[in-house]
């Protein structure tokens, strides 16, 4: 009789661990996506400024701020999605 209770407790712990792991993977994936997006857009802006020989890094500023806004939008959208 106790083996059934032990098996049920093990199953519950396993399900809880899987749920916790999937949450960690979800949020670490979102963070990696945000970082990648911001880095790529900022680097693209830097290269555009370099190509146009701008004294003020206009493209770097614009694209980095745009990527931050876009990343935050996707982050909020991901949090509200169930």
TrEMBL record:
InterPro entries for this protein: ATPase_put
UniProt keyword terms in alphabetical order: Membrane, Transmembrane, Transmembrane helix
Segments for region (Disordered): 1-20
Superkingdom of origin organism: Bacteria
Ranges that cross the membrane: 24-46, 58-76
Protein name (Swiss-Prot/TrEMBL): Putative F0F1-ATPase subunit Ca2+/Mg2+ transporter
Lineage summary: Bacteria, Pseudomonadati, Bacteroidota, Cytophagia, Cytophagales
């Amino acid at each position: 009789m106790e083996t059934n209770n032990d098996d049920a407790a093990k199953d519950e712990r396993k399900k809880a661990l899987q749920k916790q792991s999937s949450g960690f993977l979800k949020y670490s994936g979102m963070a990696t996506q945000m970082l990648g997006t911001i880095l790529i857009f900022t680097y693209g802006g830097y290269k555009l400024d370099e190509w146009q020989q701008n004294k003020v890094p206009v493209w770097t500023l614009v694209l980095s701020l745009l990527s931050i806004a876009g990343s935050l939008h996707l982050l909020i959208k991901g949090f509200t999605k169930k």
